[in-house]
Amino acid sequence: MGGSTRAAEVARHRIVQQLATKMDGMKALNNILLIGVTNRKDLLPEELLRPGRFELKVKFSLPDESGRLQILEILTDNMENSFLAPDVNLQELAARTEKYSGAELEALVNSSVSCAFNRASSVHPTKMGFDEESFKITMEDFLHALHPLAVQA
């Protein structure tokens, strides 16, 4: 394990150095724009953050409750008519998901679908598949999905 960790670190260092060299060489090319996006700036190597590499830094804040509600509405729009149970309260979910990013809200929705699918599949374990007509994603599925999601503070 120690050897593979060291090899991974060497490979990472080489990749970072190659990227930094390429970035430094782009100054002569006026028609290239390099954009980098991360939600964990603290994990970026210092070599990439030094002056002259990424000149402009734009911070996007986490969505407020209204923004989270809009994101949840967009993410559940396709499932609303047929798969979303009437007890699902997106406003409550938006209130419970403070500090969630859009990606984390998407993971929440996907996880709730998995919870619903597992629940529907376990009703008839000997039967292949499940009844699409009665398949519903409930508020309980969303609440169950909320627990394992560890949100970065």
Describe the 3D structure.
- With 153 residues, this protein is mainly α.
- The protein folds into two domains: 2-49; 65-146, Helicase, Ruva Protein, domain 3 (Orthogonal Bundle).
- Helices cover 50% and strands 0% of the residues.
- α3 packs across α4, α3 (65-76) crosses α5 (102-123) and α5 packs across α6 (139-146).
- The chain starts with a helix and ends in a 7-residue tail after the last helix.
- The relative contact order is 0.10.
Q: What brief labels describe this structure?
A:
153 residues; mainly alpha; Helicase, Ruva Protein, domain 3; 2 domains; 6 helices; 50% helix; elongated; metal ion binding; transport
What's the layout of helices and strands?
Blueprint: H1 2-25, H2 46-49, H3 65-76, H4 90-96, H5 102-123, H6 139-146
Helix pairs in contact: 3-4, 3-5, 5-6
InterPro entries: AAA_lid_3, ATPase_AAA_core, P-loop_NTPase, Vesicle-fus_ATPase
Keywords: ATP-binding, Cytoplasm, ER-Golgi transport, Hydrolase, Magnesium, Metal-binding, Nucleotide-binding, Protein transport, Transport
Family: Belongs to the AAA ATPase family.
**Which CATH C-level class of the largest domain is it?**
Mainly Alpha
What is the CATH architecture descriptor of the largest domain?
Answer: Orthogonal Bundle
Number of helices: 6
Strand content: under 5%
CATH topology of the largest domain: Helicase, Ruva Protein, domain 3
Determine the mean pLDDT.
83
What's the end-to-end separation, in Å?
A: 30 Å
**How much is the radius of gyration in Å?**
22 Å
Low-confidence parts lasting 5 or more residues at pLDDT below 50? none
What structural class do the secondary elements suggest? Answer: mainly alpha
Secondary-structure element pattern, one letter each:
HHHHHH
- Helix percentage range: 40-55%
Pfam families: AAA, AAA_lid_3
EC number: 3.6.4.6
Catalytic activity: ATP + H2O = ADP + phosphate + H(+)
Protein name: Vesicle-fusing ATPase
